[in-house]
């Protein structure tokens, strides 16, 4: 098999493309031939060593989709030949992986493996954000940062499905078009206007019910000024860098709530994983949820994919295709 592994922390150049023995699935595992792997900001943080011990080698990639080729002893839940997807399982930057069978999601008809690899982690994250961390109700208003990114496009669509008014922030006119196509009611190009002032204008000074922020350092502090009294600040990522220390006393004057969404926690239970996946893939199969793939790369070109994602100039999801 071919795989990308990490032997030191650093820039994209430390991603090593190498030949390895194809693993044999152990009890409870399925051997999957990977057809597409998602590239995510969490992968960039792993490559940089954020929050990780210096133990090497490390397999790369947490999300993918493919076809089950073999099963280990006493393995139930999937069958050889089934198309499956997964998230938060290491080793997805590869042509093959032996994965825990009870974490695999069988794909319905109408959802291809490429689409699934572009939708699993970010689609489930958006589901957790809009249905659990702050469950959007009809008539709510929300501010979605980085609305043309993978999660942002899904959050925008799901928020509209639940009857919300969506105000989106993006960095360019091209991204503004993508956000509008996803259903955003209002789009703020933050490189051209102050998003706090624009939210104040668009809401008549009331503020929004919830802010969904996966950007981090560049947007976090200013986002609190966009909330109505008793509003929710939902934080789920640090694309622009980590957020510094925060004084909880800042929440008090307007009785605000600060929440952190962790998709791994909210999909840890098998039933929760499958319930959310049924929604996401069901909406995709029915044409209710659009998946935008920004660019596809051969597995050996993982460093280029990391550079492009880090630039924050991409729209939609980046994929690695091991067969490419």
Give the SSE layout:
Elements: E1 2-6, E2 15-19, E3 29-39, H1 41-48, E4 58-59, E5 63-71, E6 83-87, E7 96-100, E8 105-106, H2 113-133, E9 141-144, H3 150-161, E10 165-170, H4 173-181, E11 186-189, H5 195-202, E12 208-213, H6 220-223, E13 227-235, E14 257-260, H7 263-266, H8 270-285, E15 293-298, H9 302-310, E16 317-321
Parallel strand pairs: 9-10, 9-12, 10-11, 12-13, 13-14, 15-16
Antiparallel strand pairs: 1-2, 1-4, 3-5, 3-7, 3-16, 5-6, 6-8
Fold and architecture overview:
The protein has 324 residues and is an alpha/beta fold. The chain folds into two domains: 2-120 and 269-321, Medium-chain alcohol dehydrogenases, catalytic domain (Quinone Oxidoreductase, Chain A, domain 1), CATH 3.90.180; 137-260, Rossmann fold, CATH 3.40.50.720. The chain is 28% helix and 27% strand. The protein has nine helices and 16 strands. The protein has helices at 41-48, 113-133, 150-161, 173-181, 195-202, 220-223, 263-266, 270-285, 302-310; strands at 2-6, 15-19, 29-39, 58-59, 63-71, 83-87, 96-100, 105-106, 141-144, 165-170, 186-189, 208-213, 227-235, 257-260, 293-298, 317-321. It is globular.
């Amino acid at each position: 098999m071919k795989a990308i592994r990490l032997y030191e922390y650093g820039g994209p150049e430390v991603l090593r493309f190498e030949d390895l023995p194809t693993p044999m699935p152990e009890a409870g595992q399925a051997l999957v031939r990977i057809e597409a792997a998602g590239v995510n900001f969490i992968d960039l943080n792993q490559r940089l060593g954020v929050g990780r011990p210096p133990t090497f080698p490390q397999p790369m990639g947490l999300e993918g989709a493919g076809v089950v080729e073999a099963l280990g002893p006493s393995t139930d839940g999937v069958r050889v030949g089934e198309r499956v997807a997964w998230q938060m399982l290491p080793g997805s930057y590869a042509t093959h992986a032996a994965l825990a069978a009870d974490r695999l999601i069988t794909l319905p008809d109408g959802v291809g493996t490429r689409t699934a690899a572009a939708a699993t982690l970010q689609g489930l994250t958006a589901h957790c954000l809009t249905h659990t961390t702050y469950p959007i109700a009809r008539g709510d208003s929300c501010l979605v940062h980085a609305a043309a990114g993978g999660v942002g496009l899904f959050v925008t669509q799901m928020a509209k499905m639940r009857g919300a008014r969506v105000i989106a922030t993006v960095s360019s006119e091209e991204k503004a078009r993508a956000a509008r196509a996803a259903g955003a009611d209002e789009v703020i190009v933050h490189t051209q206007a102050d998003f706090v002032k624009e939210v104040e204008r668009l809401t008549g000074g009331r503020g929004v019910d919830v802010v969904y922020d996966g950007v981090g350092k560049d947007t976090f502090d200013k986002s609190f000024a966009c909330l109505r009294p008793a509003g929710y600040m939902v934080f789920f990522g640090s694309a622009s860098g980590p957020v510094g220390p925060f004084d909880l006393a800042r929440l008090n004057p307007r009785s605000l709530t600060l929440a952190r969404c962790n998709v791994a926690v909210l999909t840890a239970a098998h039933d929760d994983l499958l319930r959310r996946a049924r929604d996401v893939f069901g909406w995709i199969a029915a044409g209710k949820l659009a998946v935008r793939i920004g660019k596809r790369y051969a597995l050996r070109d993982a460093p280029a994919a990391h550079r492009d994602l880090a630039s924050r100039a991409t729209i939609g999801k980046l994929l690695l295709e091991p067969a490419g």
